[in-house]
Amino acid sequence: MDFEDVLSEFDLSEPNIEQELESALKKLVKQSTNIPHPAQGQTFSRWQVLAQVSAKNLNLAKWFESHLDSISILQELGYSDLIESDKIYGIWAAEGSPNPVHELKGLISGQKNWCSGAGILDYALITYQNENQQSQLVLIDMHQPNINIDYSTWQAVGMAHTQTASIAFDQVKAIPVGQPNQYLTRAGFWHGAAGVAACWFGATVRIAEFLKQACTTKANDYRLLYLGEMSTQIHMTKQYFNYVATQIDQYPTESHELVIRILRAEVEKTAQLVLTKVGQALGARPYCEDRRFAELTADLTVFMRQSHAAFDLKRIAELTLDVESQADKEQLWTL
């Protein structure tokens, strides 16, 4: 499944980048109806698409991944009737607003932060904590009145073009999607989390290619050493994507939280290595003279912080202990 032709139509550079990004997203959405959902036998193909878009522009990938994830959530939870093929969807699940979203008689009020693509979505899936402190997912038509979008809180340099905002809802109609906590407990929650890692990986490989190209035109021992180190790590990470995708497709009703958390940690490790080694090999020049390189490295640094770093590693340890304590499970580390 190749989206290269679609992406080649758009000039995703200044000064008209935001207009071009929106046009590219609309075209991708129209072309995406055949992209497989996770756990339906073609999970790796889905991740290849996300990686391909991410290599072109991570701001665009952020929107597109959120759209695809939203469509898969609605499908998984049995709400396919709420999907309109020509509309743009997104998922906003960050909590922690000083005025949290709440529901009264089917109407949503309150503030939701970290809403990417705030001005371009037709429909948004958002979470809120109900009276029992359970996470409830709802679908909101973003063309309703009483929705105030505030872009002033997004001061990022990396991922600057994602139209991320804080949104205030004032008695806005919302359709419940699934049962309380079902958004978090469904198997697809972690399948979707792996899709985000595919975005990180696609951008990482594109950055690594700058050094690969430099080695074809002006190689030296140090550049080749760094390229060999990066290539080894990239190959290993790619193979782990294959392994995790196979596990998801073979056992679609399982969350695969452990292997997906490991995958995300592995991709972060690979990305950090590439960001460091490419910089060491090429020096300051591409950061200062190549806008594409400078933007991609800045964007990846921000996007990758969707990883929870030490918290994720702690959880991997807990899941490792849990798996190995069960006699009927294969030993995690045994060849």
TrEMBL record:
GO molecular function, one term: acyl-CoA dehydrogenase activity
Source superkingdom: Bacteria
Alphabetically ordered keywords of this record: Oxidoreductase
GO cellular-component term (any): cytoplasm
Keyword Oxidoreductase in annotation: yes
GO biological process: fatty acid beta-oxidation using acyl-CoA dehydrogenase
Family matches, as PANTHER family: DEHYDROGENASE, PUTATIVE-RELATED, MEDIUM-CHAIN SPECIFIC ACYL-COA DEHYDROGENASE, MITOCHONDRIAL-RELATED
Protein name: Acyl-CoA/acyl-ACP dehydrogenase
Organism per entry: Acinetobacter shaoyimingii
